[in-house]
Fold:
Amino acid sequence: MAVKMYGQALPNIPWEDRPEGSNSVVWRSAKNPIIARDTTPTSNSIFNSAVVPFGEGYAGVFRCDNTAREMRIHAGRSQDGINWEIDPEPIPFQLADQELGKSRYKYDPRVVLIEDTYYITWCNDYHGPTIGVGYTKDFKEFYQLENAFLPFNRNGVLFPRKINGKYVMLSRPSDNGHTPFGDIFLSESPDLIHWGQHRHVMATAGGWQSTKIGAGPIPIETSEGWLMIYHGVLTSCNGYVYSMGAALLDLEQPWKVRYRTRPYLLSPQEVYECVGDVPNVVFPCAALTDPATGRIVIYYGAADTVVAIAYTKIEELVEFIKANNL
Ligand code: BMA
Structure:
């Protein structure tokens, strides 16, 4: 079976082969963590962040919690996807309506190129957490649109193209705090402003994904369906544990789950994933892909403190998801 992955060629994608002796379907970079917590002058921590190919290199939107412990999103640029220059100031969005300026926090960004525009979604405050939407064409000027949904909601993730003529977004309705529940839903929009036709995609399941789940990187289009990498949460005696899994969604009706992993793909095990401001968190927010080689790089926040990356190959990942279907 040859699995096809669609999208832009990235011959210079960050890459390290699976370490000798490992048989994991997803393996970590030896360079982890790739972004230190104090990369900007006022950052307490830099974690759950999103990157995309841009120009000759890469650009991204980074969650930087500052030393006042305010949650902000900053733009950044990189030649190689590993070494990043992150702006010291948060993104100054130009607002569609001044009412949108009441947001006290922004966190957990995702970024996607749709046609000629980079869209950003994030968890945005509007009388509680909901999904903020903005865009840029050049990573210099940023514009903020209307919030997609009413509060409370988190983990808004756009698909990389319209499906049946509509923009499509995954999200995870939540509460105003550290939500002890949560399934993934899908909504459609003709214009990225008005959202409806809400569909249930996936519920929590056992083990590592028993408390709540949320979409991670932008879904990756493949011949076997949309590859959705997501996080799942287990509640232990010591609190939440965030792990990473994956599902394959129907290409035409992406609220239909074809396969979904029973085991996790990656769970907090390295020191930088187990020790930090919030221990035991791996939280994927972005992936880069190179269709010709089947290479995938997953960017994830570790312990709410740093950014790390992990690698996989599409053929092996799809085979693993099917062989380990829930
Ligand atoms: C979630 C979000 C994430 C965070 C995680 C673990 O509710 O706030 O940003 O990584 O909790 O603290």
Notes: The longest helix spans residues 314-323.
